[in-house]
TrEMBL record:
Name this polypeptide is given: Xanthine dehydrogenase family protein subunit M
Cross-referenced InterPro entries: CO_DH_flav_C, CO_DH_flav_C_dom_sf, Diverse_Substr_Oxidored, FAD-bd_PCMH, FAD-bd_PCMH-like_sf, FAD-bd_PCMH_sub1, FAD-bd_PCMH_sub2, Mopterin_DH_FAD-bd
SMART domains referenced in this protein's UniProt entry, alphabetically: CO_deh_flav_C
Top-level taxonomy: Bacteria, Bacillati, Actinomycetota, Actinomycetes, Pseudonocardiales
Top-level taxon of the source organism: Bacteria
Length: 319
């Protein structure tokens, strides 16, 4: 790790007065600094700023500095949020990691994390070895010829399914951005991962009220049962009435460069009977647009089965 200056701002205004690297839980930032992937000269510890709190009175408002473990345990959060957080990391990491930091965590692509290797995310224009290299964990949706790296956050997938927004604050003022528009596809600029501007902080996450999201789940398929990133995951909420699906929300992770909403699957589910046959039909649209490379060729089929598994889990007592 290289030498850097650490400061503790006394207010949000002080923290956003000029661009800096912000430290919350540090579970991603410190790792990448140790690897020399990130080498900030100035780091601000923002843990004392008033960016906490969870209000579930009408929808959800979650402060950016709320710890993952506290949000997962809160009785007001939807099951899919709690489950995604509990499946995200070890208990020790969940006690440290913040919600805002989790949304901003960097990819686990081994080429990105190895400074001896070229990587377009780390050094624009240097190349992407994953195109023809070790790419079993990599994305099949939203990829480009510049990058195949998957987005690492579990809870970002859930928030995307729930139409969540992020509140952002800088010295220029406040703004609100839908999470689905916050993340950027790699295209020719994979180093630009989101819409966060220099000197800008995530202050809170806002999830609109959706009462039927009480019937929701998050399914995560991975190589081992604990402390592992997703090969594929599915966040699903269903509104089932009289044996038919009135509405649905479906988003997936582990297979795309950003949290990926499956609008075509949702549309196929609406009005259909809550049966395995209907789920099979709807999930057939899950892999639309997928591009496989070498070792990740299994992911489109795994994606469909993961979506079906989540749908079956939510309707097992209703069929």
């Amino acid at each position: 790790m290289r030498q850097f200056e650490l400061t503790t701002p006394a207010s949000v205004e002080a923290a956003t007065a000029e661009p800096a690297t912000y430290l919350a839980g540090g579970t991603t930032l410190v790792d990448l600094m140790k690897l020399d992937v990130l080498t900030p000269q100035r780091v601000q510890d923002i843990n004392e700023l008033p960016l906490r709190g969870l209000d579930a009175a009408d929808g959800l408002r979650i402060g950016a500095l709320e710890r993952m473990s506290d949000v997962a345990a809160h009785p007001g959060v939807y099951p899919m949020i709690s489950r995604a957080l509990l499946l995200s990391a070890s208990q020790q990491l969940r006690n440290m990691a913040s919600i805002g930091g989790n949304l901003l965590q960097r990819t686990r692509c081994t080429y990105f994390r190895d400074v001896a290797m070229p990587c377009n995310k780390r050094e624009p224009g240097s190349g992407c070895p994953a195109l023809d290299g070790a790419n079993r964990m990599h994305a099949v949706l939203g990829t480009s010829d510049s990058c195949l790296a998957t987005h690492a956050s579990d809870v970002a997938v859930v928030f995307t399914a729930l139409d969540a927004e992020v509140r952002l604050l800088s010295s220029e003022g406040a703004r609100t951005v839908p999470l689905a528009e916050f993340y950027r596809l790699p295209g020719d600029t994979p180093d630009v991962e989101n819409d966060l501007r220099p000197g800008e902080l995530i202050t809170e996450v806002v999830v609109p009220r959706l009462d039927w999201a009480a019937n929701s789940t998050y399914v995560k398929v991975r190589d081992r049962q604990s402390y592992e990133f997703a090969l594929c995951s599915a966040a699903v909420a269903l509104d089932v009435r009289d044996g038919r699906i009135a509405d649905a929300r479906v988003a997936v992770g582990g297979v795309a460069t950003v949290p990926w909403r499956l609008h075509a699957v949702e549309e196929a589910l609406r009005g259909a009977p809550a049966t395995e046959e209907s789920f099979e039909h709807a999930a057939a649209a899950a892999g639309e647009g997928a591009r496989t490379r070498g070792a990740n060729g299994f992911k489109p089929a795994l994606l469909k089965r993961t979506v079906i598994r989540a749908l079956l889990e939510l309707t097992e007592g209703n069929r």
